[in-house]
Specification:
Length: 112
Amino acid sequence: MVSNIIHIHIKFFERDLEKKMARFFVFGIGSFLFLYVYFIGASIFSSLAREDMNSIIRTIGSNVGELESTYVALSKEITLSEAELMGFVDPDTILYAKRGSFATSFWNNEAK
């Protein structure tokens, strides 16, 4: 009698363990499948976004090139009289900078 009860209990335990393992494997496979689909989708969408950004960069680069050529064409047309009409004046003293021409001294908080 006791052996029948133990035998039934062992069968029940084995079936319960099999169910738990099956649930674990199904959950694991499902989670791996979900992560696989997620990462594949994310990589596809990021590559599409990169392609869009590259086309935008090309468009902006061509716009900058057009603006540069317009600037060069306009800068060649400006004369000294037109610049004076726009408000540009000749400076009284010509100031320029060269390497090592500005030295600072923190003695008595003054700049030389």
